[in-house]
Design goal:
One of its GO terms (molecular function) is D-alanine-D-alanine ligase activity. The chain has 333 residues and is an alpha+beta fold. It folds into three domains: 94 residues, Rossmann fold (3-Layer(aba) Sandwich), CATH 3.40.50; 64 residues, Dna Ligase, domain 1; 122 residues, D-amino Acid Aminotransferase, Chain A, domain 1 (2-Layer Sandwich). The protein has eleven helices and 13 strands. The longest helix has 15 residues. The model has no long low-confidence stretch (mean pLDDT 94).
């Protein structure tokens, strides 16, 4: 890898304060990024970057103008606790003409609305479970939806509010679940058919080309009735599932490329997919700028790519290579 001496990299992270979030869960999903950013910084320093960490808050514009980094690693997932405001960050970087890694303003804006994401995927033929957006308890359940159904927050990622109670076997349970989510989070709820079968995670990583890496989640035997990546499984009980290398036989890979493009993602993206007993795929979640970090931060991207003999140094190399397509001076020693 080139030596990037005398070049400054700014790592931007979410400024998470407990008062920004309605629940401890959502706060946990955002607050960890600062410690992760410090670990990631060491990897960039090893290749010669001078690294500075900056919070993604109202002070950012002045700090960017003062530092004028040659490259920004954007790890901001929310601003003042709102995921849809994360799109402000790449907008500022574009305004100041500062190159950065990850998805731009439009892609992050799309990413903050799961219903909009599904509509775009639907238009391009990417397979989805049947779904419905609930904006109030008065909404009538679509008769085409078949139980079991899983309910998810429309505007929050990170498996927040996902637990075994998220899956409903009847409408009475679903209504109670919706009532709770509306009361706490005050946002629409996406309800979709729960697909029994395997759960796959696919990463698309750009470099000179778009490469796709797939891992199947293998849940431990203690997993309860519905094997899903709950909040506790993702953030607390790291032994609840592991990854094994998998393949989409070219079919899933093509869907992932289509999804990546239509959702206006850049550099890297994560796609969660269920596969039923007949082998059919269903996209259940898409993440622009998913959690980014080396294996010691327990980020899924490093666990999945490790199965393909790709370490974090190589991931960084590809990100810089992709950024250098428009900024060739980055690759100068």
């Amino acid at each position: 890898m080139n030596n990037f001496g005398n070049k400054t990299l700014a790592i931007l992270y979410s400024q998470a304060k407990r008062e920004y979030f309605p629940t401890e869960e959502q706060y946990i999903s955002e607050a960890e990024v600062f410690e992760r950013a410090k670990i990631v910084a060491v990897y960039f320093e090893k290749v010669g970057f001078e690294v500075i960490l900056l919070p993604g808050d109202s002070s950012l514009p002045k700090k960017l103008q003062k530092v004028r980094p040659q490259l920004v690693l954007n790890l901001v997932d929310s601003v003042r606790g709102q995921e849809h405001l994360a799109a402000i960050i790449p907008a500022q970087l574009d305004l100041f003409n500062i190159p950065y890694t990850g998805t731009g303003m439009l892609g992050l804006a799309i990413n903050s609305n799961k219903f909009l994401t599904k509509k775009l995927l639907e238009q391009t033929g990417v397979p989805l479970p049947r779904y419905q957006l609930f904006s109030s308890l008065l909404d009538i359940l679509d008769v085409q939806l078949k139980f079991p159904l899983i309910s998810k927050l429309n505007e929050i990622h990170g498996s927040v509010a996902i637990d075994q109670d998220s899956v409903s076997d009847n409408e009475l349970h679903l209504r109670e679940r919706l009532k709770k989510l509306f009361r706490i989070y005050r946002q629409p709820v996406l309800v979709e058919e729960f697909i029994v079968g395997k759960e796959l995670t696919a990463y698309l990583l750009e470099g000179m080309s778009k490469k796709i890496y797939i891992g199947e989640k293998k849940f431990n035997e203690a997993a309860t009735k519905y094997k899903i990546a709950t909040f506790d499984a993702v953030w607390r009980d790291i032994d609840s599932y592991d990854y094994v290398r998998s393949s989409g036989n070219g079919i899933l890979e093509n869907y992932v490329r289509t999804a990546f493009d239509i959702l206006k993602m850049d550099d890297y993206g994560k796609f969660d997919v269920r596969q039923d007993e007949s082998g059919r795929y269903y996209f259940i979640d898409c993440n622009a700028n998913p959690a980014f970090g080396p294996i010691e931060t327990d980020c899924a991207i490093s666990h999945v790519l490790k199965m393909y003999d790709i370490n974090f140094d190589e991931i960084i190399r590809r990100l810089i290579l992709n950024a250098s397509k428009d900024e060739p001076n980055l690759m100068m020693t």
